[in-house]
Amino acid sequence: MARILILYSTTDGHTIEICRRLKQTIESRGHSVQLLDVKDDPELAAGAFDKIVIGASIRYGKHQPLVNQFIEKNQATLESHPNAFFSVNVVARKPEKNRPETNPYLQKFLKKIDWQPQLLGVFAGRIDYPSLGFMDKHMIRLIMWITKGPTDPTLTVEFTDWQKVEEFAVMIAEL
Ligand SMILES: Cc1cc2nc3c(=O)[nH]c(=O)nc-3n(C[C@H](O)[C@H](O)[C@H](O)COP(=O)(O)O)c2cc1C
Asked: Ligand 1 site: residues with CB under 6 angstroms?
């Protein structure tokens, strides 16, 4: 049995939903999973975990800066464990941008950090128009209009391929 730590960075809660599905699938294979928020800057105690995963969402083109800071601070610990990283964004709803090699945010992020994760994932996120404030709602509607996505402000649209999330969970379990 492996003890797996999944660290997440979320603004509106969808990344933690993905983490919960990863946890469920990994635990069904006999491992244990702990979920922690990067913003709490958790201490990665030596020997406490066998594998470490980080998942973060994109907002206005970037993961939260805290994610980069956390990786920088804990790079040695990350590298001394089997490790993985995944990004959540809505550009990944497009088939030509939904793989680690083809997702522009993930590729840009990897160029900015020194850590080279052993396993990479990218998942399409969710747009929940009714929950957004005025500015964000109109910015996202504009971006969606430009990129031919849904613009109805009354809609919540989930683009996540949960089968793909479960396949990623299996890859983590097998790391
Ligand atoms: C204000 C705002 C800005 C966003 N900016 C981007 C963006 O630049 N590119 C993108 O692909 N997705 C963008 N998204 C989509 C989010 O990545 C998506 O909603 C994701 O599910 C959010 O995950 P979270 O709830 O864990 O933060 C944005 C969403 C919001 C609400």
From this structure: 10-15, 57-61, 88-91, 125-127, 132, 136, 140
Report the separation in Å between the CA atom of 125 and the middle of ligand 1, taken as the mean of its atom positions. Answer: 7
| Same structural domain, 62 and 104 | yes
Is the overall model pTM greater than 0.90, yes or no?
yes
For residues 134 and 118, state if they share a domain.
Answer: no
Pair 138, 83 in one domain: no
Please name the helix (run of DSSP H) or strand (run of DSSP E) that holds residue 136, with its range, or none.
Answer: helix 134-146
Asked if 71 and 148 sit in the same domain, the reply is no
- Pair (86, 151) in one structural domain: no
Alpha-carbon separation of residue 44 from 26, 78, 88, 169 (angstroms): 20, 9, 23, 21
Query: How do the pLDDT tens digits run along the chain, 175 residues long?
Result: 999 999 999 999 999 999 999 999 999 999 999 999 999 999 988 789 999 999 999 999 999 999 999 999 999 999 999 999 999 999 999 999 999 999 999 999 999 999 999 999 999 999 999 999 999 999 999 999 998 999 999 999 999 999 999 999 999 999 9
